[in-house]
Design goal:
The structure holds 2 protein chains of 2 kinds. Chain A is an alpha+beta fold. Chain A has 5 helices and 3 strands, in the order ααβααβαβ. In chain A, helix 3 crosses helix 4. Chain A is globular. The N terminus of chain A is likely disordered. About 15% of the residues of chain B have low confidence. Chain B is mainly alpha-helical. Chain B is globular, with a radius of gyration of 18 Å. Classes of the chains: A alpha+beta, B mainly alpha.
Chain lengths: 104, 221
């Protein structure tokens, strides 16, 4: 059962608490979901998936699709690792070539 | 003449004749066999280098050959050195079907452990959802007696995704790896007779591409 207050925060001195908050933010954010170019998926379909799954505007969805098409890949979402895994799984469900990784 | 999908009064309508519907349904059934976790038969990979021979034959032999990839398409097309049939004799376990590797790709290219964990946690669910989605799409087309197809939005979406899965498998069997490979293949087979399996497979792929394109446009908000 998780406790309401993380143990290390409850005992950490103030300076260290600041550090650990930074670390937390760092650990939370720098993951990305990538979609890679493939010769099968249609530009119209990829755009449709970005609009449908992420709720991106048509303009943003088309820009990302063109990045995939011309640069070979595009970062389609950024966030915590679990969220990126969820996005990757969903996009693979649509048949897109999606992966996740730490954003370095 | 087939007519692609259009949105009309909130429905998605197209015109496909019996042969065209049978083709699409047959291919979706085969892809469902490939992805369905319930239908994974470990013994099927023992003989003949992997493709099951005892599928229910409803879709016709030529479709089986296209999707089952008994070398029919890939080898038939490959007049180049690019085609190397793997030697599977001996006791080495057959490698994972590359079409499955494309449908369920390695999800982390930098961390094998994370990739393995992701696969362990997601593949069964993805297989089950894909299988269910294919069933929705198959049912939507299989019951139709006339040329006119009229789908509600959920069925149309299921068909859109199912067509992706079919084209991914067929594209893998055709050896499509780069954006211009389809055109290159068309050039390669341009001298072959129309009933050549490779010519036929390319025509099927082209038809599915066209059909999916119309459906994607119709569904796009």
């Amino acid at each position: 059962v998780p406790s309401a207050v993380p143990v290390e925060m409850s005992i950490a001195p103030v300076e260290q608490e600041t550090v650990s908050t930074d670390e937390l933010a760092e650990a939370d954010v720098p993951w990305i979901t990538l979609v890679w170019n493939d010769p099968v998926n249609l530009m119209s379909y990829v755009t449709f998936v970005f609009q449908t799954y992420f709720g991106y505007s048509k303009t943003k969805a088309e820009r990302l699709m063109m990045d995939v098409h011309t640069k070979g890949r595009a970062v389609v979402s950024t966030g915590a690792r679990e969220r990126m895994e969820t996005d990757t799984e969903a996009l693979q469900g649509y048949g897109l070539w999606a992966t996740f990784q730490k954003d370095v | 003449v087939a007519r692609g999908f259009k949105r009309r009064d909130g429905r998605y309508v197209a015109k496909l004749d019996t042969v065209e519907r049978g083709l699409v349904v047959g291919l979706m059934e085969q892809v469902r066999e490939l992805v369905d976790p319930e239908l994974v038969d470990p013994e099927a990979v023992d003989s003949d280098g992997g493709a099951g021979d005892d599928r229910d034959g409803g879709a016709g032999d030529e479709f089986d050959q296209i999707v089952a990839g008994l070398g029919g398409v890939g080898l038939g097309v490959s007049l180049s050195a690019a085609d190397q049939a793997p030697d599977l004799s001996g006791s080495v376990p057959p490698p994972r079907d590359p079409a499955l590797e494309r449908i369920f790709p390695t999800a982390n290219r930098e961390d094998e452990q994370l990739a393995a964990e992701f696969r362990r946690l997601t593949e069964d669910g993805l297989r089950a959802r894909k299988s269910a989605n294919l069933t929705t799409a198959i049912d939507a087309l299989a019951g139709i007696e006339e040329q006119k197809i009229s789908l509600e939005q959920p069925q149309a979406l299921a068909l859109l995704i199912a067509l992706t899965d079919v084209r991914l498998v067929l594209g893998e069997r055709l050896g499509l790896a780069r954006d211009d490979d389809f055109e290159l293949l068309e050039e390669q087979v341009s001298g072959l007779p129309r009933d050549d399996p490779a010519v036929y497979a390319l025509a099927v792929y082209d038809f599915l591409t066209w059909l999916q394109e119309t459906l994607a446009h119709a569904l796009t908000p």
